[in-house]
Design brief:
heterodimer, A: mainly beta, seven-stranded mixed beta sheet, four-stranded antiparallel beta sheet, 11 strands, about 0% helix, globular, B: mainly beta, five-stranded antiparallel beta sheet
Chain lengths: ~110, ~110
């Protein structure tokens, strides 16, 4: 059974640029959630995708957007990067959209200079 | 005020000690309570899951939920150096069709041999 994989693991961008982060969900999971984890903080919910539709969104501006593909993999896009966007971005998959058991990837660490 | 409060520590204990980790919350709509463990440079992994009030035990770990006090705890018996990690409490509303989790800040635990 393949777990959740994320790419890239690390990346550095400059303010104003755009970034795309990718996630492959665990086999059999149809729901993907994205979280932002700033240094020393707990993860914060960005949004959830269920069967290719956004199914819930946290308190993040529209420049944070996402996609889910028919194979349930997902992308997180962030436009007009700001310094405060520097964080670990975690993707989590689950068996159902209301599941509390999330399976997290190792994250993509984004640094914005 | 944050919805979920958790002392960030760090907490340092000798091997074999009993560890008590706690979170308080303000939203009475939370019905699902979880503890996730996060090792350095890894994604969180689910340790314990409890619905509503009560206790749950799994090996050396015991989770307690007191909804009347809006207080949850995780106890680790016979702590081991391999338990050194950040422990995140997480909660979810009982209603709705999204699995959005609200995380605490995380408590960093170090178990010294």
């Amino acid at each position: 059974e393949t777990g959740v994989t994320q790419s890239p693991t690390h990346l550095i961008k400059t303010r104003g640029q755009q970034v795309t982060l990718r996630c492959s969900s665990q086999s059999g999971h149809n729901t993907v959630s994205w979280y932002q984890q700033a240094l020393g903080q707990g993860p914060q919910f960005i949004f959830q995708y269920y069967r290719e539709e956004e199914n819930g969104r946290g308190n993040f501006p529209p420049r944070f957007s996402g996609l889910q593909f028919p194979n349930y993999s997902s992308e997180l896009n962030v436009n007009a990067l700001e310094l405060d966007d520097s964080a670990l971005y975690l993707c989590a998959s689950s068996l159902a959209r209301t599941s509390s058991e999330l399976f997290f990837g190792e994250g993509s660490r984004l640094t914005v200079l | 005020q944050k919805e979920v409060e958790q002392d960030p520590g760090p907490l340092s204990v000798p091997e074999g000690a009993i560890v008590s980790l706690n979170c308080t919350y303000s939203n009475s709509a939370f019905q699902y309570f979880m503890w996730y463990r996060q090792y350095s440079r890894k994604g969180p992994e689910l340790l314990m899951y409890t619905y509503s009030s009560g206790n749950k035990e799994d090996g050396r770990f015991t989770a307690q939920v007191d909804k009347s006090s809006k207080y949850i705890s995780l106890f680790i018996r016979d702590s081991q150096p391999s338990d050194s990690a950040t422990y995140l409490c997480a909660m979810r509303h009982g209603s709705g069709n999204t699995g959005k989790l609200i995380f605490g800040q995380g408590t960093t635990l170090q178990v010294k041999p």
